[in-house]
Design a protein that fits this description.
binds guanosine-5'-monophosphate, magnesium ion binding, 3 helices, alpha/beta, single chain, binds magnesium ion, three-stranded antiparallel sheet, six-stranded mixed sheet, 191 residues, cytoplasm, Rossmann fold
Length: 191
């Protein structure tokens, strides 16, 4: 019998930055960091969708604190791979967060405009505290002064997909995070 080769995770990926196992391990670590911050206390998670869905779902299951969950939907990149224009709130919060401890979660911090927009929105609602957590941080790309309190991984300036992150709404369901092949980084026919 011939040796079986491991199939590539996805043919549209140029490379894999983080495997499913590496993501799991880091998310578990972030769960421990949250435990150090919040102890056994209650807090409200605000997830910036759609990108942060996978990360939020996995991180929530690493903690046993009493948590509430709400989401904000922010206008997306469309089919482009670079941040353009000003992000807009498409759907806002439904929970009352006044005097509550809030943890804001996003998939990736790039120019910083999205996180700044949402932190400003949340601050106006008078939370007891506000912390931010992103899975990925493209530090070199910042255009506005904002940093996250908790960061999963720092990454170089590459357009990444998978584990919630999309290109033209595709690839969110990849279990790993990788770099899309450059020849596919134009608006494709199916978009
Ligand atoms: P920012 O407002 O910081 O420029 O961008 C944040 C948002 O842009 C993220 O929530 C994410 O939706 C999107 N984004 C930024 N960089 C990437 C990337 O490399 N890949 C994907 N798929 N989305 C990105
Ligand atoms: Mg996003
Ligand atoms: Mg997107």
């Amino acid at each position: 019998m011939s040796a079986r080769k491991t199939p590539p995770v996805h043919p549209d990926l140029e490379s894999v930055l983080f495997t499913e196992m590496q993501l799991k391990r880091r998310v578990r670590g972030l769960g421990r960091e949250l435990k150090e911050i919040y102890g056994a206390g209650e807090f409200t998670i605000i997830s910036i969708i759609n990108g942060a869905v996978m990360f939020t779902a996995d991180l929530m299951r690493e903690i046993d604190n009493p948590v509430r969950l709400d989401c904000v939907r922010i206008s997306s990149y469309g089919t482009k791979t670079k941040s353009t224009g000003v992000p807009q709130v498409v759907a806002s919060l439904t929970l009352d967060i006044a005097n509550r401890h809030v943890l804001l979660i996003d998939d990736i911090l790039d120019t910083g405009k999205t996180l700044l927009l949402v932190t400003n929105l949340v601050r106006k609602l008078n939370p007891a505290s506000l912390r931010t957590c992103v899975l990925l941080d493209k530090q070199g790309r910042r255009e506005v002064p904002i940093e996250a309190d908790l960061v999963g991984f720092k990454i170089p300036d590459k357009f990444v997909i998978g584990y919630g992150l999309d290109f033209a709404e595709r690839y969110r369901n990849l279990p790993c995070i990788g770099v899309l092949k450059p020849q596919l980084q134009n608006p494709p026919a199916w978009a």
